[in-house]
Amino acid sequence: MSEETTSVEKKKQPVVSREVLIPFIMVTALFSLWGFANDITNPMVAAFKKILLISNFESSLVQFAFYGGYCVMAIPAAIFIKRYSYKSGILLGLVLYSAAALFFPIAGHMMAFWAFLLAYFVMTCGLSFLETTSNPYILAMGDESTSTQRLNLAQSFNPMGSLMGMWVASNFILNKLFIVVPEGTPAEEEAARLALSASDPQKWTEVQQFDLSVLQVPYFTIGLVVLAVLVIFIFAKLPKAQADDDKTLHLIPTVKRLVKNKKYIEGVVAQAFYVGAQIMCWTFIIQYAASELDMPQAVAQNHNIIAMIVFCSSRFVCTFLLKFVSPGGLLGTLSVVALALITGVIFIPGMLGLYCLMATSACMSLMFPTIYGIALKGLGDDAKLGASGLIMAIGGGCLMPPMQAWIMDKADFDLGFMMLSSVRVSFLLPWVCFIVIAIYGFRTHMLHQD
User: Fold this and answer.
1) Which helix (H) or strand (E) holds 31?
2) Rg of the chain's alpha carbons, rounded to an integer?
3) What is the DSSP string of 152-211?
4) CA distances from 190 to 83, 201, 206, 338 (A)
5) Which distant-in-sequence residues (6+ apart) come within 8 Å of 16 by Cβ?
6) How many other C-beta atoms are found inside a 10 Å radius of the C-beta of residue 324?
């Protein structure tokens, strides 16, 4: 009888209680802010390639610098919030985010690619603080039995920021870049830019200055917005989490416990492969559409926006489904569907292949918060340092896109029975990533009962 009573009490636990509703909304708003930064930046790989006339691999260094900040700063961020508080971590993250965004006009004036890369790196050092802080903070804002649902709910607002970032990139950056050949294909535009850089260097410099000035404005604007959010959080009263009371840093014992936790370690690996897959699918949708369909960059980015709408809608659907099904089981099932879709991206030509790439976003919507929630469940105070490992895993987004870009720069592949463009072949990398995620999902479902 007591077991039935306990079961009923768990079912009655609210995902978000009234006592923490306002703080929950405030912290959830941060998910949109870093979503904006992530997805205004993905299309910049194509933009910098066009502006600076560099290879796919060189332009992908934007992602290397952007996601490299997560690798470097995740553990220091965890140590910082352990020593101080969740609120302190949020404040420092907002400071770094705004400072980097406000630096963009300086980088543009310098006309130096390395200056932009530095700005992206500093920006994600700030985002690393925000994510390392906000994710476990959301988990701590209520009963552990509803923690995965609560994080999925908060993460549902991340793609809204992402959608805004994509829309701004399409309409206020890619669509505003100088056009050398009106109505020309992407290949014709690139050839014309190369010809202009060789025949009239002064005119080409003016074109570059114009394009870089277009790029600066959205980043400077979001810098001002983040600065305003920083002021709000300075004066806001946020509830203390239970873990905030213990300031003692048990670094080595905590690391030992985490290393011995198979579910956690496997989660870090799965998260690295998931982020790599996500960034590759969203970054190179532009290159796929341009190469396979002769689609202008701004139009290709609009298809990416549709994919993000699918992602956002699916996130709410998956959050609802988690009330009835195992997180690990749903994660594994969606990974298998994603595998099938990426197979279509590789082997099916034309618009149908592009639709397969867009549809993959529906499968990815559940993955990040679910892997995160499964890996941290039951860790208690170890979740602060554990969260840093999962945020550091976002570094998969700094390593895999350059690898995919390197494949894209190769010649077409002859499979004997058919020719495949290097762009289509490059999507073998996210295909492998989804295999790893599927294994983690089904393993946690069967072995860890999650």
Assistant:
1) helix 21-41
2) 22
3) HHHHTTHHHHHHHHHHHHIIIIITTS--SSTT--HHHHHHHHHHHHHH-HHHHHHHHHHH
4) 51, 16, 16, 33
5) 24, 141, 142, 150, 153
6) 7
For the chain of 450 residues, list the mean pLDDT of each consecutive stretch of 10. Answer: 47 70 88 91 90 92 89 84 86 96 94 94 93 83 72 81 90 90 86 93 94 94 96 86 61 83 90 93 92 90 90 84 85 95 94 96 90 83 78 82 92 84 94 95 76
Q: How far is CA 396 from the centre of its chain?
A: 10
Q: From residue 271, give the alpha-carbon distance in Å to each of 349, 378, 396, 433.
A: 30, 18, 8, 10
- CA 229/CA 240 separation, integer angstroms: 20
Mark 127-159 as b/e (b = at least 16 C-beta within 10 Å).
bbbbbbbbbbbbbbbbeeebbbbbbbbbbbbbb
Which positions ≥6 away from 149 have C-beta within 8 Å? 15, 319, 322, 323
Query: Is the distance from CB of 269 to CB of 437 less than 8 angstroms?
Result: no
DSSP state of 349: -
Helices 86-102, 113-140: inter-axial angle, 10-degree rounding? 160
Consecutive H or E run containing 120: helix 113-140
Give dist(CA 394, CA 33) in Å, integer.
17
In order of start, what are the domains of the chain with their CATH numbers?
Answer: 18-447 (1.20.1250.20)
**What are residue 15's phi and psi, to 5 degrees?**
-65, -45
At which residue do the structure tokens 């420092």 appear?
92
Residues paired with residue 414 on neighbouring β-strands, in sequence order = 419
Length of the chain (residues): 450
